[in-house]
Amino acid sequence: MKTEFIKLGENTKVKVSEDTQFVLDVKANGGDLNQSIDVVFEKSGVSAEIIGVFKLLGGEEIGLRTSAIHKVPNTQCFTHIKGVLMDKSSSNYVGKIIIEKDAQQTSSYLEDNILVVGEGTNNISQPILEIEADDVRASHGATTGRINKDQLFYLQSRGLSEEEAQEVIIEGFLNSLLNRIQDETIRNKVKERLNV
Amino acid sequence: MLTIKDLEVSTQDKKIIKGIDLQLESGKIHVLMGPNGSGKSTLANTLMGHPGFSVDKGDILFENDSILDLEPFERSQKGIFLSFQYPAEIPGVNISSYLRMIYNKKSGENLSPVKFRALLKEKMALLDIDESVLDRYLNEGFSGGEKKRMEVLQLLVLEPKLAILDETDSGLDIDAIKIVSSAVNNIQKDSDMTILLITHYTRILEYINADKVFVMQDGKITKSGGKILAHELEESGYTS
Amino acid sequence: MGKRQLEEKKEKTTKKDPLDTDYKTKYGFSDPEKHVFKAQKGLNEDLVRQISKMKDEPEWMLEFRLKSLEIFNRKPNPTWGGDLSKIDYDDIYYYAKPSEKAERDWEDVPADVKDTFEKLGVPQAEREFLAGVKAQYDSEVIYDSLRDELSDEGIIFMSTDDALKAYPEYFKEYFGKIISPTDNKFAALNSAVWSGGSFVYIPEGAKVSRPLQAYFRINAEKMGQFERTLIIAEKGSYAHYVEGCTAPVYSADALHAAVVEVIIKPEARFRYTTIQNWSGDVYNLVTKRARVEENAVMEWVDGNLGSKLTMKYPSCLLVGEGAHGEVLSIAYANSGQHQDAGAKMVHTASNTSSSIVSKSISLGGGRSSYRGLVSVSPLAKNVKSRVECDALILDSESASDTFPVMDIKESSANIEHEATVSKIGEEKLFYLMSRGLTENEAMGLMVSGFIEPIVKELPLEYAVELNRLIELEMEGSVG
Description:
The complex is a heterotrimer of chains A (196), B (240) and C (479).
Chain A: E1 2-7, E2 12-15, E3 20-25, E4 35-41, E5 47-56, E6 61-70, E7 76-85, E8 90-99, E9 107-116, E10 122-131, E11 137-146, H1 149-156, H2 162-178, H3 184-194
Parallel strand pairs in A: 1-3, 2-4, 3-5, 4-6, 5-7, 6-8, 7-9, 8-10, 9-11
Helix pairs in contact in A: 1-2
Chain B: E1 2-11, E2 14-24, E3 29-33, H1 40-48, E4 54-62, E5 65-66, H2 72-78, E6 80-83, H3 95-107, H4 113-126, H5 144-158, E7 162-166, H6 174-191, E8 194-199, E9 212-217, E10 220-225, H7 227-236
Parallel strand pairs in B: 3-8, 3-9, 6-7, 7-8
Antiparallel strand pairs in B: 1-2, 1-4, 4-5, 9-10
Chain C: H1 23-26, H2 45-54, H3 59-74, H4 111-120, H5 124-130, H6 140-152, E1 156-159, H7 160-166, H8 168-174, H9 185-193, E2 198-202, E3 212-213, H10 214-219, E4 228-233, E5 238-244, E6 249-250, E7 255-256, E8 259-264, E9 269-279, E10 283-292, E11 297-306, E12 309-312, E13 315-318, E14 324-333, E15 338-347, E16 353-362, E17 367-376, E18 384-393, E19 399-408, E20 414-422, H11 426-433, H12 439-455, H13 460-477
Parallel strand pairs in C: 2-4, 3-5, 4-8, 5-9, 6-9, 7-10, 8-10, 9-11, 10-12, 10-13, 11-14, 12-15, 13-15, 14-16, 15-17, 16-18, 17-19, 18-20
Antiparallel strand pairs in C: 1-2
Helix pairs in contact in C: 2-3, 3-9, 12-13
């Protein structure tokens, strides 16, 4: 699978011509509220991953939209978005999976996880499915929550302070997705951006 | 080296530990047994400072100082270790990096990944844990038995003064119990570690040499004795 | 339907029917020349005034209706949901006395409807009523004795029209307060022309063990287009209200817009179960909302079958600490049908929780959509919410959508949402068929299994009938 680093505009469109990992260049600082990408499947037999990771620091805002649009049979897509929200940050994410009538044998999944660390945060999440073919597998999962207290205690019992334990958990949260990025350069670039 | 005085502990308004006194002697292996719900795990978690439990009365002295006001990480720094009954899964945290981090923190050293690997390999061999585990994430997707062995590996890495093993034997087959027991016996001998082994079954006592046995029932210590007590319990259960 | 055995108790009575729907006597139309109400199409101020006058309503209710009419005229159709573009508001009867409602001949009832009645074992008298052949259903005797029993316990269960007269204070306090006419176009419509529906009052601490069946109460006035239901559950009470039926119900009316308002006081618990199966080209647009106070629980159990388009999103306003709201919803869309259903949970208080489970099935070209909202206000701490929506698409002609929104304005909330869309697995089908079931039977069994978590919450007769109905639908549509 090749990896592509995609800059996001208000209406970015990409067509999947071969197995590709699309790593989204999600801009968190500067409050860009209109980052959108349509990943269109017009060629059968291909698969893609859409990976978007962000960490919003105090007061930052983000608006992100991803769409996996399946027009032909036999394609696969895995969209995975993770975000960390620090104090007073806001995220608005719309994740669509559209499977048109002719796109039989499509498998498309969407996972969207938000880890809320700060206070005074806002997050809107809309995982949407529009399915018109029956021989498909499509699902989505979305979660929003704070750091699990049992995880915090476990790490603290091993000698980490509360802040250190929190850092480890946040890093782990982001890494479990970042480590899926196959291209090392891109992976490191994104990790650097996120201070991970 | 650990003294528990008149301890009462409750959680969410329910009293679980109803007044216990306990003394652990330095360098000895103590076993705490009791039926489910007797408060054994609560005691283990309280010793480690779990925020979900509140000490209503009494004191806990570690090396003659009260630890009630200490945070869990401070207690760990002092040399207390808890092997959890249900270890938390922490996604995305690479085991090898994690172990190196906690080791470096504890020892004050700053071992490089390569040097640490060498150290780690030794310890993993004692527990018959395969190297491939090091690329996985902390406890994620581990079976119960694998998690328990990961707990004991961390014990070997941190080398605490007091190791509290909360039902470490549950979920392990006989071979795993033998391996874990021999690792614990060895480290205990080498470093004079104090052990508090909490268990429901007497099976592990065949492999670990208990110096003292306590029985806990319904939030209180009801019996204490030597190894013979363990055998009696095996024969006739807790209610005699 | 639900109480077939009670059919046997039917007998003529000389007792005055408290739900006398002989408008002539009740409202003083003894002289036909004096008040001529002509059934008319279209909606205007004059019609609204006539409706209010015929019902002999207090001035404030007329004002309320007129203001609502204004709002209805002002608001455009919603731009989301199903296709409402074909509704011609001027071509609809908004009010007609039950005795004047157009009836049809038994011969004109579609064969598949008759067939369903046959297979479900619906008694002939009920069939005629449900199919729109008869205007009245002789269940008044049963209903009366039920009502007397309840009133002994202080429970009020009567038509909204009658309750407005008997208990105006409750209406002044609660009517239109949970769902205001400005809420949406169809709430405004209902507020202008509402007629019929139930009023239920459960006094403090009362625990009603037997479900309150609206079926009998509604029967006396025939299925209403613009029913308005108001339910008040006082502190610490418990009751279960059930309405509708699984057998196809014929309606001559193209547009149904009901409004249900429920007020649940602290520590009370209320369940509202609806099964609707409109046969024919019905637009079924319902606004249902409960306000849930401290430590109280509201459960909506919703089964949507039939109709051309149903838009229904039972919702809970969780305004008191510790309140809990639940929606269990089944939507079944067959050929030419669109079920756009879901739920809304609005958390404005701390330590509240909600759960939504939605199961939808589409086949024969039908489309079923889940539309939902979970929102958490900035001051609502420690909110937990879980949504699970699963859709089964049974053939390549059908479609399914999910449009959930999670709007979380507080940092301690724990929200989970999961949705899956799939078809029936080949291996599972093969497994069942290898045990001797036909393909239809196997599919029917799997569909039943799919909706089982919700069906098991229905009163037994409904559960049995719903399962049977689904089996029938499968037999007809698969292959």
